[in-house]
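can u do me a favor
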């Protein structure tokens, strides 16, 4: 079993910005983690977690409402169309599967208790929902 070396950095947030000293610590933590073959984990101290929670509630409300309508209408279509039309039934199943996928993403966002980023594309970071969500078995 390979041992992972994780580096924790406490990130100070003031007036919506990460303090310069925290950026320096994150950079040094990144260098150390790379040397040790581990990862850098940041723990925010400030208002960002509260803001993340507010965003999660908004997304939950604004997206779940139309998703319920999409899901209900797809289920209704499934029961009212000719059951011999396999292509249409497959398309309805895809719609329902993707609705469930979106609901899972919203659930993970709602369960986020910390902000852990990952690289999305070169130079652009995004929230790692799996690692940011509470009750995560992969917590360091």
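np, heres the sequence
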């Amino acid at each position: 079993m390979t041992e992972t070396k994780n580096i924790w950095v406490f990130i100070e947030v003031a007036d919506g910005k990460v303090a310069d000293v925290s950026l320096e610590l994150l950079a040094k933590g990144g260098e150390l983690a790379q040397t040790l073959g581990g990862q850098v984990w940041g723990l925010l101290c400030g208002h960002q977690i509260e803001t993340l929670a507010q965003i999660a509630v908004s997304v939950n409300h604004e997206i779940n409402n139309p998703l319920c309508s999409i899901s209900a209408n797809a289920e209704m279509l499934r029961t009212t169309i000719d059951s011999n039309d396999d292509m249409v039934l497959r398309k309805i199943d895809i719609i329902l599967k993707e609705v469930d996928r979106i609901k899972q993403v919203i659930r993970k966002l709602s369960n986020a208790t910390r902000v852990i980023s990952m690289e999305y594309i070169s130079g652009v970071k995004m929230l790692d929902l799996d690692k940011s969500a509470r009750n995560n078995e992969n917590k360091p």
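The chain has two domains: 6-47+114-132, 50-110. hope that helps!!
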